[in-house]
Amino acid sequence: MKKFTTFLAILLSVVTFAQTPQKLSYQAVIRDASNNLVTNHQIGIRISILQGTSSVYEETQTSESNTNGLISIEIGINPEFANIDWSTGTYFIQTEVDPTGGSNYTITSSSQLLSVPYALYAKTSGSSIAGPKGEQGPTGPAGPIGLQGSQGVTGPKGDQGPTGPTGPKGDQGIQGVTGPVGPQGTNSGFSHYIGELYGGGIIVSLVIINGEEHGLIAALSGMANLPWGPTNKFIGARNVNGSTNTLLIHNLGIANLAANKCMAYSATGDGGSNDWYLPSLQELQSAYNEIVKLNMVSGEGTIFKTNKYKSSTEVDSNTNYAVDFFTGTYDPEIKSSTISTTLPFRKF
Fold first, then answer.
1. CATH architecture, domain defined by 4-123
2. pLDDT tens-digit profile of 244-286?
3. Reduced 3-state DSSP string for 250-283
């Protein structure tokens, strides 16, 4: 249901006619919940005259608002209006409004009649000639508390404030890498070895999990001039598993990103697996540790030169990590940068 409110511009005055009862003029401006005028619309209104909290008179009317949302009526259409003794007590005027023109009065407003209309009071005073000034009477008791007004409409929502500055970098670092696998022994349980050409690339990491041998395979050549992704957008690509990060980047739907090129990569010997991905920071560090340990920096093709290799790990909305295979350190780089090399990985 549409909600309305009224902003009452009340004008009360006495209207006297030769053969009709005296009346009060009343005007009000009708607005809806968005503070827009309700114009050219039938309005239902119930008016009550209260003495304290007791009603001494009541009437109902309908009126059509004009182009300015204004309604104008005269109060006193019922004969009982002439019986009000304005010389006694404190009086209030209460209005109840149905902006749809019916009798479902949803808006209530009341205000005290601070001075009785002169012509109406004169009707009961008995004379238009003022009598002598009497002695000041004692202070009367406090009057009754007026009726509570209707709740005002909720104001419009304010504009969103500017984003605050980025706080200082915390002390806690990212999750550390898994330690390197030791060199293969006679009873190591591994059937593969670091540096073996296998699965369309070269094995750069080995581990046994629940009695099964697993490892990481790096492509034999890297790809250049590929950005990580757009800046000013954080997608939460901070997983140790680079394939999970790669899928998050792919879901951005932007062509020619490093992650998408890795997913499309294929090589002889990979069995058409289509499971290549952009490695995480931890996976690149693990590969670097193995290569340094086994002195395999020369590698095959362009792999494991003293390049910076792009990781799928996100730093923030503007940067990602890249690992320097000359020093083993990792540093943030702008996501749109194409300086670091893209090297696809896969698992077995």
1. Sandwich (2.60)
2. 999 999 999 999 999 999 999 999 999 888 899 999 999 999 9
3. HCCCCCCCHHHHHHCCCCCCCCCCCCCECCCHHH
